[in-house]
Specification:
Blueprint lengths: L12 E4 L3 H10 L3 E10 L2 E7 L5 E6 L7
């Protein structure tokens, strides 16, 4: 389950999105590779991570308890 305390892959940035599954699918369509699949990590929070073509791991998160202002 994400997030975890495993730091072996380096820093991980999560981008807040309205639909984590859609953002994940878009990233894969643009050349990213699945790092971790889309998952409900509790409380309605959904995450997924990809490795982009440059080798960086990027995360997507939908959090219904957070509103960007």
């Amino acid at each position: 389950m994400l997030p975890s305390d495993d730091r072996s892959g380096g820093a991980l940035t999560y981008w807040g999105v309205d639909d984590a599954a859609s953002a994940f699918a878009t990233a894969l369509a643009q050349g990213a590779v699945e790092h971790t699949p889309v998952a409900d990590v509790g409380g309605g929070i959904v995450t997924a991570t990809v490795t982009n073509p440059a080798g960086a791991v990027v995360g997507f998160i939908f959090n219904p308890h957070f509103t960007a202002t």
